[in-house]
Amino acid sequence: MKSWGRLVTRLCCGLALLISALPAYARASVTICVENTEFPPFNYFDRDQSVEPRSIGYDIDILNLAFGQSVLSHRVIALPWNRCLKEVKQGTVDAAMSASLNGERRRDYLISAPYYYLTPSYYYLKTDFPKGVQVQHLGQLIDYGNVCGIKNFNYENFGLTPDFHLFQIRSLAHLPEMLTKKRCQFFLARKETLSGTLAINKMDSFYALLAGITVPDAKPEPFYMLISKNSPHKEAIKQLFDAKVNSLNKEGKLQPLLEHHLQLLSQAY
């Protein structure tokens, strides 16, 4: 019995030495933020839970695939988008999901590989323009009325000029009022996210009143993970995430994963 006890002790000591010899990030936990107003099908709250809702969606699945079997554990938190970006920049949070790029973000963050693409579009009430509104470039919309967008969202990839005046609303919940009361005639959104976002906010009937047009000459807009340059784990995060995105893309699994969540949203809301 004594020899068995000494063997167990030696094994435990050996395991402790092995663990202490691993790289610093091997036992680290990183924090990744998503927007708390939700961005379906990429991140949204699981409403089937009776306790505090957890984030689910395409983003969450990819994070689980990237880090679930790795030496780097992770947790996801939902924050107001501006705060999410600020804390990632400061290093309080390690990374943010579902971000488009502009000059400031290219400068302030370490950028992952793109892991999905969206279509910049503009929307209006069908009753306001029964014959439709087609423009050669987005700036021409001001000839027909005011254009709205969500405050702190990035619309650089929509092709707007720096002097373009965009009426900013705090959240999508204000959109019906802005359009029906004619404070705005147009709203900028990504085609693949608007219907799901309206649905989870119980505004899906409003979507049927809208006409949507792809922004002229707009290319599919890539979205990224933004990684804090101040995170001690930044290189490990980027390496693990990019490698998984690359392998999923080569295996043809990214699009089916996205379609899975689009289907879930259409069934649930």
What does this structure look like?
It is a single chain. Helices cover 36% and strands 22% of the residues. It is α/β, with parallel strands linked by helices and 269 residues long. It has 2 domains: 24-117 and 221-268, Periplasmic binding protein-like II (D-Maltodextrin-Binding Protein, domain 2); 120-214, D-Maltodextrin-Binding Protein, domain 2, CATH 3.40.190. Strands 1, 4, 5, 6, 7 and 13 form a 6-stranded mixed sheet that branches. Helix 2 crosses helix 8. Residues 1-26 have low confidence and may be disordered.
Summarize the structure.
The protein has nine helices and 13 strands. The strands form three sheets. Strands 1, 4, 5, 6, 7 and 13 form a six-stranded mixed β-sheet that branches. The chain has a five-stranded mixed β-sheet with strand order 10-9-11-8-12. A two-stranded antiparallel ribbon has the order 2-3. With 269 residues, it is of the alpha/beta class.
Q: Helices and strands: which structural class?
A: alpha/beta
Say how many strands there are.
Answer: 13
CATH class of the largest domain: Alpha Beta
Oligomer: single chain
And the CATH topology of the largest domain? D-Maltodextrin-Binding Protein, domain 2
* Mean residue pLDDT: 87
CATH A-level architecture of the largest domain: 3-Layer(aba) Sandwich
CATH superfamily of the largest domain: Periplasmic binding protein-like II
**Structural domain tally:** 2
Characterize the biggest β-sheet. Answer: 6 strands, mixed
- Level of helix content? 25-40%
> Which spans of ≥5 residues are poorly predicted at pLDDT below 50?
1-26
Radius of gyration: 22 Å
User: Based on CA inertia axes, which overall geometry fits?
Assistant: globular
- Pattern of helices and strands: HEEEHEHEHEEEEEHEHHEEHH
Report the sheet-strand fraction: 15-25%
What is the number of helical segments per DSSP (H or I, 4+ residues)? 9
Could you tell me how far the N terminus lies from the C terminus, measured between alpha carbons in angstroms?
63 Å
Protein name: Transporter substrate-binding domain-containing protein
Keywords: Signal
Family: Belongs to the bacterial solute-binding protein 3 family.
InterPro entries: Solute-binding_3/MltF_N
